Amino acid sequence: xxxxxxxxxxxxxxxxxxxxxxxxxxxxxxxxxxxxxxxxxxxxxxxxxxxxxxxxxxxxxxxxxxxxxxxxxxxxxxxxxxxxxxxxxxxxxxxxxxxxxxxxxxxxxxxxxxxxxxxxxxxxxxxxxxxxxxxxxxxxxxxxxxxxxxxxxxxxxxxxxxxxxxxxxxxxxxxxxxxxxxxxxxxxxxxxxxxxxxxxxxxxxxxxxxxxxxxxxxxxxxxxxxxxxxxxxxxxxxxxxxxxxxxxxxxxxxxxxxxxxxxxxxxxxxxxxxxxxxxxxxxxxxxxxxxxxxxxxxxxxxxxxxxxxxxxxxxxxxxxxxxxxxxxxxxxxxxxxx
Length: 338
Known about the structure:
The protein has 13 helices and twelve strands. By secondary structure, it is of the alpha/beta class. The chain folds into two domains: 2-79; 86-335, Rossmann fold (3-Layer(aba) Sandwich). A nine-stranded mixed β-sheet has the order 1-2-11-12-7-6-3-4-5. Strands 8-9-10 form a three-stranded antiparallel β-sheet, with helices on both faces. Strand 9 and strand 10 form a beta hairpin. Helix 1 (2-44) runs antiparallel to helix 2. The chain is globular.
């Protein structure tokens, strides 16, 4: 028992050391960048990069910093990894855990994503209006739509937009259908929703839509927002293939998801039992998350034309509690060849 106690203390100390190393680095970088940002704000008299009580600055990672955080994650001890039977259990209960998530949080967890028309030009009112006037209604499919925080605001702003929302969770789809914005658009024939496991086969809305001439190629655009990261890595390629099949030739695929060395990964990667595989982790609620790099995305989307692909790296500070977060996302825009 004495030996076991020593081992446990060693593991806990290692976790604390690696986590402390990362956060010390984060705070150091924030102090440097926030000082510069504060001076800019004093001179301009405004805070462009602030929301409520949060302020953020662009984060420029050096090769030394990347090597440092990579070393922290690679130094994980076997005891920090989940057991094989736990990994299998999380895979088998993926849909159930998302149902539990939405049963618990209802429609209150995520905020509406009003920024999409700024970061994805394909979704601007002008672009959608031009497309609709020349080619008929623009059909936008969102995979992993949740309760509609992305597509429902778009429906309100674009009368020519038709939206198909798809999600693994039955509960999420039911909540989306209950939303007044969805119900109104549905009565107009502009909104549909269905449960879809993107790793298991073709889109059910396309297969059952009698107005579509071909099973493949029905959507003008598809959105993947923080969805692919929840899929087990071994099934990601099939999932992407199934989404690409929904697009018409020339259709766009718009992507945003978690990036390598995001703060959430550093927390999970230094916690016992959270690591399911390389860069793949389980959260406290049983849902899972993979953290991508650009090569991951290029490999999976290789049959599409790359329009834009980059990291979004920012340091966020909460001015209320002085907490600091170093965030990383991947942003991409792709087009299906004609």
